[in-house]
Design brief:
alpha/beta, Arc Repressor Mutant, subunit A, D-Maltodextrin-Binding Protein, domain 2, 10 helices, 37% helix, DNA-binding
Length: 299
């Protein structure tokens, strides 16, 4: 009944079906039909129609007094909502994993700030799957298999995982790096992360092995696992994106014919119809950026 209420209020304010139709961008017949529906709904005659124009009935005057302020306030709120949703100016609340946002996406944030200066970024960095609705975020970047939920999910692509170690391990006299990975990884200490505890390795020939043993070291933070390996703690399986500049890194890619399970990257957001223009453009820009990265395989 919102359309009927708005039509009634504007028709009363204008005192004419024709002027009301002009303001509403519709026809006189539509305006008349809306008034008829409202009168049928209320069971009261609200307007007297005569050659001299329109006048409110007693019931119509009482109804108008109750509705005018509400309809005007609703129109203002809808206009503000439209501005909030469809404008690039305003706050964009993004959730993202710490290690992915701070390293691989560092260049992307520079790009965003340069090209969209009217958007105020509100970044919530957390490696846990925090509740996006509770956080009132517009959109979230998530890595790894996504649980079934009511969230809208868009898979952008995958990040390959590789084995890396300190260079000293590759020259260790008692290690044969040409042997099969399963035998080798029983001799070299492994550093695991909670996100990548189980190592399933495959090669381009379709062979696959799974490392079931416990890791010598375990951490819940990717950067800490890399720090331990740079200190000589052993070998670890990490997303290729975590080694952004391999030429300047203290690590070497070992067993290059073998790689771990790819890590899927998703964008998720709460409601399909309420995604803001800012979040929509953010998704487009991030998709374009990722597709250009050597460590990313776009879908």
């Amino acid at each position: 009944m919102l359309n009927e209420l708005k039509t009634f209020v504007i028709t009363t304010q204008e005192g004419s079906l024709t002027r009301a139709a002009d303001q509403l961008g519709t026809t006189v017949a539509t305006v008349s039909r809306h008034i008829d529906r409202l009168e049928a709904h209320t069971g009261q005659r609200l307007l007297h129609r005569s050659p001299r124009g329109l006048t409110l009935t007693q019931a119509g005057a009482a109804y108008f007094g109750q509705c005018e302020e509400l309809v005007t306030a609703l129109d203002e709120r809808l206009a503000n909502l439209d501005q909030s949703i469809n404008s690039l100016k305003g706050t964009l609340r993004v959730m993202a994993p710490n290690n992915f946002a701070l390293g691989p996406l560092a260049e992307f944030w520079n790009h965003w700030l340069h090209h969209f200066p009217d958007t105020d970024l509100n970044l919530d960095l957390n490696n846990q799957f925090s509740d996006i609705k509770h956080a009132q975020a517009d959109i979230a970047i998530r890595i790894g298999p996504q649980p079934d939920s009511s969230l809208i999910q868009k898979r952008l692509g995958d990040i390959r995982t590789i084995l890396v170690a300190h260079p000293d391990w590759t020259t260790h006299p008692e290690l044969d790096w040409s042997t099969d990975p399963e035998s080798l990884l029983q001799q070299v200490p492994t550093v695991g992360t909670t996100a990548l505890q189980r190592w399933t390795l495959t090669n381009d020939c379709g062979q696959s092995i799974t490392i079931h043993g416990k890791h010598r070291h375990l951490t819940n933070d990717l950067e800490m696992s890399l720090h331990l390996v740079r200190s000589g703690a052993g070998i670890t399986l990490v997303p290729l994106s975590s080694i952004v500049d391999q030429s300047n890194d203290q690590l070497v890619h070992v067993l290059p014919d073998w790689y771990g399970m790819p890590r899927p990257v998703y964008l998720v957001w709460p409601y399909r119809n309420a995604i803001s223009a800012r979040a929509r453009v953010f998704a487009e820009e991030l998709t374009t950026f990722l597709a250009k990265q050597h460590w990313f395989q776009a879908v």
